[in-house]
Amino acid sequence: MKVNPNFLKKVKKYGAFDISKCFNCGNCTAVCPLSAEDASFPRKMIRYAQVGAQKEIESSLDPWLCYYCGECSDTCPRQAYPGEFMMTLRRYLIAKYDITGISGFFYRFPWIQNILVAGIFAFSLGAFAVYKGDFQELAAKIELAFPVYVTLAIAAYVFTFYRKTILDKAKKILISFDFSNIKETLIHGLTQKNFSGCSDTDRTRWIAHLLVMSGYTLTLVISNLHLLEPLKKHYGISDFATFLVFYAAFAILAGGFIMMYRRAKKKAQSSSFSHSTDWLFVVMLFLIGFTTAVVHISNMILGPQDPRVEMLYKINIAVEVAWIIIIVPFTKWIHIFFRPMAVYLRNLKKEEAQGKLFSMPIPGLK
Amino acid sequence: MSEQITEKDHTINENYRQKPKVAVYVCHCGGNISDIIDVKKVAEELSKYPNVAISREYAFMCSSTGQDYIVEDIRNNGINRVVIAACSPALHELTFRGALSRAGLNPYLYEHVNIREQASWVHKNDKEGATLKAISLTKAGVEKILRQDPLNSIRVEAVRGVAIIGGGIAGMRSALSCADNGLDVSIMEKSGSLGGNLNRKGKVYPSGKEAFEIANELSKKVLSNPKIKVYLNSEISFIGGYVGNFQLNVKKSDGKFEKVKAGAIIMATGFSHYKPQKGEYGFGLADRVVTLPEFENLLENSGEKALEISGKKVSSVAFMHCVGSRQIDGIDAPGKNGKVNEYCSRICCGSIISSANRLKEKFPEISVFDIYTDMRTYGMEHEKYYKKASENDIIFFRRPLEERPKVEIGVEKVNIKTKDVLTMNEEMEIEADLLVLGTGMEPNDISDLVEYLKLPRSSDGFLQEVHPKLRPVEVANNGIFLAGTAQGPMDIKETLQAANTASVKAAALLSSPDIPLDPFVAVVDEDKCTGCGLCPKECSYEGALIMIEKDVKGKKKKVASVNPALCKGCGACAAVCEPRAINVAGWTLDQFDAMVEAIAKE
Predict the structure, then answer these.
(1) Whole-angstrom distance, CA of residue A291 vs CA of residue A287
(2) Residues of B in contact with A40 (CB under 8 A)
(3) What topology does CATH give the domain B1-153?
(4) How confident is the model at residue B5 (pLDDT cuts 50, 70, 90)?
(5) What mean pLDDT is predicted for residues B170-187?
């Protein structure tokens, strides 16, 4: 393995300023609940970064299996904050797996991202304000464009992730049809069960995360399926849509509030080092939940014809536009997919070692 | 020579001239002895033995109560010889001699029998056998003490001066401390200036002070001290004499000889940097492979803008630990003495880290690699340097002890391949513009001095102390002390500590006009001596035993003569003397006969 002293400098642009202090004692590995005989968390990743083993890091699933319980940082005798280093690696990898390179740019220059989000929001709102046509129709079109855009972004990421972690090494397509693997992947994806693997389980963090994720997914479903038409329909308290909006709003607001509070108070290792992109992420999430709820409540009180409802609805859609264009494809949002994928691919690798795997050679790839 | 020897009788009680009355004390050693040996039975058996007047057993004879028994028995019960069956004499012989002295009895009229190491500890599974053995040994002790003469320690007149060999910091520090203690000091330095290995450019850890500044500060003080005489460019052609009366033949810078007298000698002969063999980690094959002292010089002389070697800018530096240290027979090539250096040089880890940090602080853009075996930054606060090195982005690699990194000299770079424990034992490939070899310490070649003084050396070739904890700066030869790296690898702080310790020991030795020595030396019964001349041939100590012409009872006679200050009491002379005319005091052949008889009787 060739040593590259410059690699760590690159990684440090994404955080982890203290990781050089690590002298490879292995205390972190000893306390990490993910460590196993063949899996040395998180020391292996730290060491690879120190010696500049770029390929090893970019093909590793380890960063995505870590749920940042922070015990490694608590026990580190040199205050190198290994947990934060794993977080930094996730940022680095998102930047690396992004074929456009924009994520990396945003991570290194977060203020540009802030300006762009604010700019897109302001531009959309301005455009909506001067729009003379039926805004409900326009909103329906915008919301239908979202899934196309997002799917393209996700597909690019997922493919790069798969290529870096599996394809480049195996030189063939590997797929696991194992039922238990698919089940485990789904459970992890939906419940973040790995949080409970942190031996000193931080329940608040897990609940907050679960609330936000479920609320957010629900919002996604509501808007993508265009379930809400606040400028056409008058919603009542007993409508099913009202229940969905209230749950989503409550989940995002409560979870988002807990997250922001913990980041501000630095409650745990995982919330002590906030990258400014982390702040943008939670603030935007919070705003989505908040504006959706406000639009819905005002619709219930004022009725769909009230111009104030239309104004609030335009703000709500403008926030979503900024979110979809900037946040979804170019921030840690994609970890929603990477985490369950990492579980799936880890199991897949195990199955491959046992030789019970579907594989498809790719012509020309040797 | 013998006129320098005086006898001083420090006992007042003359009762040993009366019929022998032996007291035997059997110590339990708090269970160490009594758990195995039936101490009551031992005491009882001994009480029946001829000439034994008192026989007791007690939990701790070395305690003040135990010692009081001895003192009272001597004072009140007319005891004039003592046998104590207890631990090893190395532990408490002096304690009990003190008790005898306090009671007014000659302290040498006591025999220490070791029934712990020689009976209870080694025969744990045979209690009965151990008890019987303890009884036999103690009986032999009684027989021995019955034939013991009241000895007196030998006292030797001493010159109140110290000769210090070596003018590095150890020598200079020793000289100043000795002078402070009122001793006359001579420093013999073979080079043209004081300071030794510190006469160089470059900073030293942990103070970060310039090396030559430390040397200059000390040498100024030394040169201006009226009690210190410095012989630069000097050579020592011979050393003779003994404790209190050493004589050194010094060849001075002008080629003339001078005889220097000294009561004690301090060996401050220092170390040399290990010089790698040609091809060892690429040394000597390219100017891009240098030793640590060479690198220090390079760093000190470099400009502020860039570190250059042979006119080329250096952008990456690798440091290699344990070069010439912790070598393994069969893996590393042996040095000039035919041996590999198995020892750890101790200072290199700290020195390398300190140099690497200074390199990083001067040129932060240079990539620094550090290939170590075990990081031994052992000193107080040294761990801080190690941590600092990590913060300075120095990348560490740990090679297994028996692995030797492979160094290839490329056109522009040095290519180093090593197995790395820290990266899950993977084979790492490091490219650097400059490779610095962290060379260790080797003892200076002082084989002539070792020969003159018969100094003991460790297997590593450094001078060896009597005991690392109990007598850390003394050698087996009386009156010779060790200061600094002549004894083994040390850093500056440790060297100064050792130098101060050595000078305090020398000052204590020379604090009174004469020096007491153990009386266990050869004595000649001139009536019995036939003058055959066999014994001096057996003697290993220069001048300790010679044949002289002497008036014995009015007749001129050739007899053997012992210099008690030089005699070590080995007994080689007694072994060849058929008429038993020469014996070691306290250990005569008659005593041995009686002991063997006592043991073999049953």
Answers:
(1) 6
(2) 424
(3) Rossmann fold (3.40.50)
(4) very low
(5) 97
Domain B161-270+444-512 architecture: 3-Layer(bba) Sandwich (3.50)
Helix (H, G, I), strand (E, B) or coil at B40: helix
Element spanning B499, H or E: helix B492-509
Q: Which of A7, A21, A51 to mutate to test the interface with B (most CBs of B within 10 A)?
A: A51
DSSP, residue by residue, A272-287: TS--HHHHHHHHHHHH
Task: Delimit the domains of chain B by residue range.
Answer: 1-153, 161-270+444-512, 273-442, 521-584
Question: Which residues of A fall within a CB distance of 8 Å from B408?
Answer: none
pLDDT, one tens digit per residue, over B98-132 is: 999 999 999 999 999 999 999 999 999 999 999 99
> Which of residues B252 and B18 earns the better pLDDT score?
B252
Q: Which fold has domain B521-584?
A: Alpha-Beta Plaits (3.30.70)
**From B393, B422, B431, residue closest to A24, measured CB to CB:** B422
pLDDT 10s digits, B469-494: 888 999 988 899 999 999 999 999 99
Phi, psi of B159 (to 5 degrees): -75, 130
How many angstroms away from the CA of B395 is the closest CA of chain A? 7
Structure token digits, residue A259: 């997250």
Q: Does B428 touch chain A if contact means CB atoms closer than 8 Å? A: yes
Is pLDDT above 70 for B178? yes
Query: ipTM value of the model?
Result: 0.84
Q: What is the pLDDT of residue B7?
A: 45
Q: Do B390 and A24 touch (CB under 8 A)?
A: no
Which of B422, B429, B435 has the most A C-beta neighbours within 10 Å, making it the best mutation to test the interface with A?
B422
What pLDDT is stored for residue B6 in this prediction? 44
Q: Which residues of chain A have pLDDT under 70?
A: 194-201, 363-366
Round the average pLDDT of chain B to a whole number and report it: 92
- Give the three-class secondary structure for B293: helix
Residues from chain A contacting residue B396 (CB–CB below 8 Å)? 23-24
Amino acid at position B286, single letter:
A
Q: Which of A21, A40, A47 sits opposite B387 (nearest CB)?
A: A21
Answer yes or no: do B390 and A6 touch at CB < 8 A.
Answer: no
**pLDDT computed for residue B423 by the predictor:** 93
Q: Which CATH number fits the domain B273-442, given the four candidates 3.40.50.720, 3.50.50.60, 3.30.750.24, 3.40.50.970?
A: 3.50.50.60
Identify whether the C-beta of residue B235 lies closer than 8 Å to the C-beta of residue B252: no
- Residue B462 in this model has a pLDDT that exceeds 90: yes
Q: Work out the number of other CB atoms within 10 angstroms of the CB of residue B18.
A: 9
Chain B positions in Cβ-Cβ contact with residue A2 (cut-off 8 Å): 428-429, 431
Burial (CB count within 10 angstroms: exposed 0-12, middle 13-18, buried 19+), residue B331: exposed
Q: Could you give all domains of chain A from N- to C-terminal order, each with its CATH number? A: 7-97 (1.10.1060.10), 102-352 (no CATH)
Domains B273-442 and B521-584 share a fold: no
In chain A, what residues touch B387 (CB-CB under 8 Å)? 21, 23, 78
Query: Is A50 in contact with B369 (Cβ distance < 8 A)?
Result: no
The shortest CB-CB distance from B423 to any of A20, A21, A51 is to: A51
Q: Distance between CA atoms of B99 and B81, rounded to whole angstroms?
A: 12
Structure tokens at A321: 């536009």
Chain B segment 296-355 residues within 8 A of A by beta carbon are 316
Spatial contact of A251 and A53, defined as CB atoms under 8 Å apart? no
pTM of the complete model: 0.81
A-contacting residues of B 359-378, CB under 8 Å? Answer: 367, 369, 375
Mean pLDDT of the region B82-101: 93
* DSSP-derived secondary structure letter, A326: I
Residues of A with CB under 8 A from a CB of B: 1-3, 5-6, 8, 20-24, 40, 44, 47-48, 50-51, 53, 78
User: Are B395 and A21 an interchain contact pair (Cβ–Cβ within 8 Å)?
Assistant: no
